[in-house]
Known about the structure:
Layout: H1 38-71, E1 74-80, E2 95-101, H2 114-117, E3 121-122, E4 137-138, E5 148-154, E6 169-174, E7 189-198, E8 207-213, H3 215-227, E9 230-234
Antiparallel strand pairs: 1-2, 3-4, 5-8, 6-7, 6-9, 7-8
Amino acid sequence: MEHRTFPSPSPGAATPSPGPVIEPGRGAPGGPPRTPPRTLRARRRRPAVLAMAVAMVAAGGLGGAVLYNSTGQRIAVLALARDVPKGQAIGAEDLVVARIASDPVLRPLGAGERTKAVGLRATGDLRRGALLVKADLTDDPLVEPGQSVVGVATKRNQLPATKLQPGDRVLVVSTPESGQNGTTVRTPETLAVRVVTVGKPDTDGSVVIDVAVAPADGTRLAAWVATGRVQIILAPRTGSAAPAPTPSPSGSAA
């Protein structure tokens, strides 16, 4: 019989034994679980992150589309191409078509109302670039049926400092003559009229103003103007009615 001898372990040496098999992602039996590597965790979370990013992009795009649809729509409206003074009739060259974002607060006249706006008068001073609204226009005629238009030539000192505009109500005062001893020859007469057109001032400041008067007062006013002794008084513009004239011998009024 064959005999084999094995080396005896030295005193104090441990006998090696096969250890437990540790699976990936788990710790040793009885010990804390091992943490998966960072790359593995990143791979696990990447689909969720991508899904969240896609959802946020989609929400942002939808919000932008809604905002564009609500504020990005443009409409064609009327605007002023130049300054238009109060009382002046609107001409086709005074208007341009502008495109603005639709806003319920703004209610300018649409571009399709251009033909209706031409020929109407400005109710106030209109500035270039401003949007045209319904309140800016009026169809009130400056010359009533049957009235006459008389040109009143005036010098700078015969006019108020405030610039006259078409549509203004004024009083034309016939200033009396003075006698040799300083006494007045007659009592001043007044006539209520309405300004139709204001001419361009000359180099000396004189200007011709067209006014509308009743036919019976047209010749009388022309006679006053011929003497050069007239004064223009501007009536209040806000909430005012036509000034009451002093009774004339003919008993007519403008």
